[in-house]
Amino acid sequence: xxxxxxxxxxxxxxxxxxxxxxxxxxxxxxxxxxxxxxxxxxxxxxxxxxxxxxxxxxxxxxxxxxxxxxxxxxxxxxxxxxxxxxxxxxxxxxxxxxxxxxxxxxxxxxxxxxxxxxxxxxxxxxxxxxxxxxxxxxxxxxxxxxxxxxxxxxxxxxxxxxxxxxxxxxxxxxxxxxxxxxxxxxxxxxxxxxxxxxxxxxxxxxxxxxxxxxxxxxxxxxxxxxxxxxxxxxxxxxxxxxxxxxxxxxxxxxxxxxxxxxxxxxxxxxxxxxxxxxxxxxxxxxxxxxx
Length: 291
Hints:
The structure is a single chain. This protein is an alpha/beta fold. It has two domains: about 1-40, no CATH class; about 45-195 and about 205-290, no CATH class. About 45% of the residues lie in helices and about 15% in strands. The chain is built from ten helices and six strands, in the order ααααββββαβαβαααα. Strands 1, 2, 3, 4, 5 and 6 form a six-stranded mixed beta sheet that branches. Helix 1 crosses helix 3. The longest helix is centred in the C-terminal third of the chain and has 24 residues, at about 255-280. The radius of gyration is 21 Å and the shape is globular.
């Protein structure tokens, strides 16, 4: 469904009826299940797919295709499928009632969802590539800050299973929070973000904490500048996923469908990277594998 850009389980059922070899490869020898069966199964795929993706990442780390030493986190708005909610006319019902309005400096107002993603970065080591490590999906009106810690805990657990250590976690100023700094420090690595200049209601600048002063000082060093330059790698990967798998606007509605669909997309990307490595292809030649 993901590799052939099929936007519904109905189209998946029709596709398998016409493609005998792929149907057999899926273990469907006698008959194709109805689209209702596909729909029920599809909604339960989130956790199994995430577990399988974790295993693939472990293999990529073993082959030294990716490194977990430096990671980066970013988010991006995804437009919902169908008709948006009307601010001036609340009587108009949106096609996806779970979607919400969200704003970003690059996309302005968007009615839909937000993808929060942690990825590897391209730092120093040649022969490596960008891959998704952990992800979350929320409605578009949620702030980035609250999603960093769940992502970091998953990547920290992943690094432990790979017997690797994370040294730096990069993020933009939307993740600048004392709680995030302390939480990452407790997990054993350092969160690096730009420091926002906060003011009191009277307009006086709020004094920076010791942690924030340390981060600000590090960002002014040569190493800090070189390191933080790689923060945009996660943003670049999200853009690549959007273009490859046509997820903006999203082809499915509702979180119960969007979560497994995006999990499948990230798994498909990971498998494509592994396939390229095993077949001597360029690690970034993903587009040629997508119909």
